Amino acid sequence: MNHFRRSTRFLNVYICSLCKSQQLEKAEAALIDGIRIGYLPDTTTYNTLIVGYASSVGFDAAYSILHRMREAGCRPDVVSYNSLISSAGRCALLSKSLELFEQMHQVGVNPDIWTYNTLMNLLFKYGKPEEANRVFCWILSNNVAPCATTYNTMINGLLKAGYASYALRFFRSTQRCFGFTGGIVTYNILINGLCELGRFGEVKRVLKELDELGTTPNVITYTTVMKCCFRHGKFQQGLEIFSDMKAKGFTFDAYAYCTVISPLIKMGMAKEANECMEQMLRTGIRFDLVSYNTKINLYCKLGNLEGAFRLIDEIEKSGTESDVYTHTTLVDALCKNGDIDKAQLHLKHMEMRGFKSNLVACNSLIHGLCQAGQVGNAMKVFKKMEMKDSFTYTSMVQGLCNAREFLTAYKLIRTCLREGMTLLASVRRAVIFGLRVSGYKRQARKLKSEIRMASVYRYEG
DNA sequence: TTAGGGTTAG
């Protein structure tokens, strides 16, 4: 008996390593070979396959393992259900996750703290913070012991839902009532959430608290603060953090590299970004989709569009699906290159592949059409767009000014202001100047005063 | 089997 148990354990370890490297066919073959020579698969074997199928194929494939498991006489346990609940959530199937939670009760499998943590996380992720909070209260009232992940999930979810003050109060109360001190993960969650909300004073206080606790910041802490600096225009400070990380000997992962490469591209420092990318390639890091998208963006900015398109094949060969970022980056590059026809063709290609029309791609197209002097065509795209933002209006108004259609630009800019959006100052000035020199002095005065009023309103708001 | 950082447009 012990012999079989030990052998099954070896079989499970082997199947697990195959699943992790996405070799599902080999994992299935190992299972068949194992049975043939008398190593009976157990619940852990099938749980391993659930995780393998969930990460490489998808929820349905993972769910089908549950039936195979029962047919083989193995009873699904809490790990089987937790893995499936999590997989359904990753595939945007929240109702399926909740269904599986119900099913657990019906078949007599008791949920554990992992089940509740996963559910809470999914409820926050899909915009249901009240329900996530109800799960937390349920945990407490039913004497299930929360763990660090439970508190961290609550803090993260509350911050992402915009309840920063409540998240901080929640953290303080877990410290007081449950003796939860919080570790580096908690502090990283707090720093990231507060950075996203622009509450830099509190970020500084949290960083100080981390230091006082004697906890060493890790690569995630640094990456988070660095991104925050770049996002708020503090490029020099961001680059200093990057140098500091190198000096301290941090091992850079794909997240850290992408965090620094993208702002370098944005700042027009393509040469430096390329050096950083080459460094990233030298480390042999496995490229995931975001890394590939960053590389595609870099190639586009270096003018290597052919190389950028070749990278799509590389992505697909690596077994990853390209996404809306991949294609939108290419549409923008084609527009900037003046290849408007190719950009429009690529947009059609995106639609055929099931990508919905997206704001960024339309904005790039409007900008490209205006730059190419096709203001009429740009206006057609503009009118068809269901959603517009300040980028849309800025490009369109700029295009109209270049075409000396100041009255139309005047009407658009007023709509934009009414909707509470801002335009680049240079574009606002161009419209006012254009109106004046074209003899529309009254409209120019009116617009100037409306712009002033809108800025006062925003300031007071 | 659960929680934290990275990608596109004016």
Question: Please, could you describe this protein's structure?
Answer:
The chain is built from 26 helices and no strands. Helices cover 76% and strands 0% of the residues. Among the domains are: 1-110, Tetratricopeptide repeat domain (Serine Threonine Protein Phosphatase 5, Tetratricopeptide repeat), CATH 1.25.40.10; 323-387, no CATH class; 402-461, no CATH class. The model has no long low-confidence stretch (mean pLDDT 93). With 461 residues, it is mainly alpha-helical. The protein has helices spanning 2-20, 24-36, 43-56, 59-71, 78-90, 94-106, 113-125, 129-141, 148-160, 164-178, 184-196, 200-212, 219-231, 235-247, 254-266, 270-282, 289-301, 305-317, 324-336, 340-352, 359-371, 375-384, 390-402, 406-418, 425-437, 441-460. The chain binds one DNA strand of 10 nucleotides through helix 3, helix 5, helix 7, helix 9 and helix 11.
Unreliable residue runs: none
The major β-sheet equals: none
What would you call the shape? globular
- Rounded to an integer in angstroms, the radius of gyration calculated over CA atoms is 27 Å
> From the 3D coordinates, which CATH architecture of the domain at 1-110 would you assign?
Alpha Horseshoe
Text of the CATH class of the domain at 1-110: Mainly Alpha
What is the distance, rounded to the nearest whole angstrom, between the alpha carbons of the first and last residues? 73 Å
Report the mean per-residue pLDDT as an integer: 93
Succession of helices and strands? HHHHHHHHHHHHHHHHHHHHHHHHHH
The number of strands is 0
Helix content: over 70%
Q: Give the CATH topology of the domain at 1-110.
A: Serine Threonine Protein Phosphatase 5, Tetratricopeptide repeat
- Number of helical segments? 26
Keywords: Repeat
Protein name: Pentatricopeptide repeat-containing protein
Organism: Stephania cephalantha
PPR repeats: 42-76, 77-111, 112-146, 183-217, 218-252, 253-287, 288-322, 323-357, 358-392
